[in-house]
Design brief:
CATH class of one domain: Alpha Beta
Helix content: 25-40%
Low-confidence stretches: 185-223, 227-314
Largest sheet: 12 strands, mixed
Shape: globular
CATH architecture of one domain: 3-Layer(aba) Sandwich
CATH topology of one domain: Rossmann fold
Number of strands: 24
């Protein structure tokens, strides 16, 4: 039962992995601070905000929005942390929006499980001139965690709030947060919409998108984070990143966020509670400690994932589907999601499909596990009674137990098939409507390709699917500009495709995958707004690089040998340093006249061949500092080949999002932790689409200069 708190009241928390859901009457910036036993925040590294959205055990939203979801893992909190304060602030300037909380509806904050079940909630009333507020806090007490409703407002805004918590750099950090929001690095993006009672997704309220912008972000390993809104999807931008095109509603259209960590990504491989198809919370089977006997899914009403405590003003309504026949599900419509543009609506719709598939599959798996567990218990009970082992009584009991199991599994499968049918129908409508940035290379949209005039909102990196329904593919979309670098894994470890036993073929395919991703990035940006550099020390990627070299879209020929490595890394490192200094000094106009201010992508092939210790340190610097100032990294490498450097490179691998050139199940969603099979978006064999697109990019760049 939900505890509805009033100011000062507390409530015990029995779960370690939680979501904090925020709903406000206007876009707000959400953040959190970590405090010691006295509540003191010791430095900026103890503050999670849109520019730095992920801390150990904590991930905040990377956008300013009317609705947010913050991910918290109390078990992952450092021992020095005794208090987590959830902060809300109105964006400075507001673009004409409210400057005080007294002018808007009272914000609502809820602590929920990962399945959406509310644990405690608090409506923050009594605010007037305040523009920042500590909404609630999670705190340790005698080894256990509790939540307390705070509602402490500050008329002086974020700077006063952070100063009150003991942060020495409060004013600088507050300015950096507001600057990130003003530049569109924390733009508002609705989350995947919930389902309504009629089985269709509601588009009436915008919630923070989770996703696999999000971000993805976690340490590389058996399971990576999908980049994320939540997964995460959340994709974070750091202060000082290049401004993005303006959207129709007056804010920056370029993304922001960084994953959830990515979680850092908000996705991880740990089990999380799932929602049953009937809306009943179910523990995910991947976490044995959390498994209880769940309620079984029924063939009753559709899934309801909504958190409808508050309804806020939404963007213009999306297209509506024609009325469905009585008793039939509503026919899907492309762009049937909340958003201010068709691209944003499609983006949110894709992530809504991703979340729906994750949750309905979790419900099915949980129901099957429960049926299996119950049958085992009944069989054990039969065998434990000597009387049931004699004659036909035992056989009849065993048959009855198996019949119950079959009935329950068939019932769960019926619900799953119903949801899969609806999602498949939606996918068949949505896929042909996707713009080039979201479309596969086999989409007809590329035949009419024109170089765009504005930066895109997101990019497709491949497809995701689950083993129970491999035919249903969900596009893996990540927010732009990239918050994390990309690592195309040319090693064979973990690959699901056993046909690639030849290491040379796998390296070639890895480089072709990198070229396809680079070509898409070039194609979806305006002419001259995206620049690609290549380091190929041994020249082993020459064949795969032909489309980029022949069309002349590279900034320079691929750099060869140790000298080429040193020169290219030196120039990009210098660019990062110059832009960082200009941003920190507030003197962007003082950059050298010849400096290329476009987004930069560095492709590194065959790492660590040709790299000495100094070059390795420069590469790590670019991976860590580059994304915030428009320099992005794409590595084609086998981690085992770099093992000679020891643990020195572990932070580098963890900072990159791992992709594979062949199917691999290393990605996990942020809701229930499924292991999703990732497949890269490759150009069909024999297709000339890459040549056509890159030629158009080269011609447009020539005209621009």
């Amino acid at each position: 039962m939900t505890a509805e708190l009033v100011r000062g009241q507390n409530h015990s928390l029995s779960q370690a992995r939680l979501e904090i859901r925020i709903s406000a009457g206007t876009p707000v910036v959400a953040g959190a601070t970590l405090g010691d036993e006295r509540g003191t925040v010791h430095g900026v590294e103890w503050v999670a905000h849109p520019g730095t959205p992920t801390l150990p055990g904590l991930e905040v939203s990377r956008q300013a929005a009317a609705d947010h979801r913050l991910a918290v893992d109390l078990d992952a909190m450092p021992e020095a942390v005794h208090r987590i304060s959830v902060l809300l602030a109105l964006p400075a300037g507001g673009g004409g929006g409210p400057l005080r909380f007294g002018a808007v509806a009272a914000p609502f904050v809820a602590v929920t499980g990962l399945d959406g079940t509310e644990v405690a909630s608090y409506t923050i009333t009594g605010l007037d001139a305040e523009s920042a507020v500590v909404a609630m806090e999670l705190y340790r007490r005698q080894g256990a965690w509790k939540v307390r409703a705070v509602g402490q407002g500050y008329a002086g805004g974020l700077a006063e709030l952070l100063t009150d918590q003991g942060l020495p750099q409060a004013h600088q950090l507050a300015s950096g947060i507001h600057e990130a929001v003003a530049q569109g690095l924390a733009r508002s993006v609705p989350a995947p919409p919930p389902r309504t009672a009629d089985g269709d997704r509601s588009r009436q309220a915008a919630a923070p998108a989770l996703g696999p912008d999000q971000g993805g972000p976690t340490a590389q390993g058996a399971s990576d984070a999908v980049p994320t809104q939540p997964m995460s999807p959340y994709g974070t931008q750091a202060p000082g990143a290049p401004p993005q095109p303006t959207s129709p509603y007056g804010t920056q259209a370029g993304p922001a966020p960084g994953a959830p960590p990515q979680p850092t990504a908000p996705y991880d491989a740990q089990g999380a509670p799932a929602a049953s198809a009937a809306g009943t919370p179910q523990p995910a089977p991947t976490d044995p400690a959390a498994v209880t006997q769940p309620s079984l899914p029924t063939t009753g009403g559709p899934i309801d994932y909504s958190h409808p405590r508050r309804q806020n003003a939404a963007p213009p309504p999306p297209p509506t589907a024609p009325p469905a026949q009585p008793g039939q599900p509503a026919r899907p419509v492309a762009g049937d999601a909340t958003g201010w543009s068709m691209d944003e609506r499609l983006y949110n719709q894709v992530w809504g499909m991703f979340e729906d598939l994750a949750r309905t599959m979790a419900a099915y798996r949980s129901a099957v596990d429960f049926a299996d567990s119950r049958m085992e218990k009944e069989l054990d009970l039969i065998l434990s009674d000597p009387r049931s082992r004699i004659g036909g009584q035992g056989d009849a009991a065993r048959e009855a137990a198996r019949a119950k199991y079959t009935h329950l599994v068939d019932q769960a499968r019926e619900v799953l098939d119903r949801d899969l049918t609806q999602l498949t129908a939606e996918s068949e409508v949505v896929e042909p409507a996707l713009p080039p940035a979201y479309a596969g290379w086999d989409s007809p949209v590329w035949h009419g390709y024109r170089v765009p005039m504005e930066n895109p909102m997101a990019l497709r990196l491949g497809d995701l699917h689950l083993p129970e329904c491999p035919q249903l593919r969900i596009p893996l979309l990540v927010r732009l500009p990239l918050e994390r670098g990309l690592w195309i894994d040319s090693g064979r470890a973990g690959s699901l495709d056993g046909s690639f036993t030849d290491a040379h073929d796998l390296r070639r395919l890895s480089m072709e995958t990198a070229v396809a991703h680079a070509a898409r990035l070039l194609a979806v940006h305006p002419a001259g707004e995206f620049t690609v550099h290549v380091i190929d020390p041994a020249g082993s990627g020459g064949q795969a690089l032909v489309p980029l070299v022949r069309t002349g879209v590279l900034a320079a020929p691929p750099a060869l040998g140790a000298g080429g490595v040193t020169d290219t890394l030196g120039r990009l490192t210098e660019r990062v340093d110059l832009v960082q200094m200009a941003v920190r000094a507030g003197a962007a106009d003082s950059l050298p006249p010849g400096l290329d201010t476009s987004e930069q992508l560095l492709i590194v092939n065959d790492f660590p061949h040709g790299f000495d210790d100094r070059a390795v340190n420069q590469l790590r610097y670019l991976a860590d500092e580059g994304p915030a100032v428009g320099v992005h990294l794409m590595m084609v490498a086998d981690r085992e080949e770099a093992a000679g450097y020891g643990p020195l490179l572990d932070p580098l691998w963890r900072s990159l999002m791992r992709l594979t050139p062949v199917p691999d199940d290393h990605l996990a969603d942020p809701w229930v932790g499924h292991a999703w099979t990732y497949e890269p978006s490759l150009v069909p064999t024999g297709s000339q689409v890459l040549q056509h697109v890159l030629t158009a990019v080269a011609v447009a760049r020539t005209k621009r200069t």
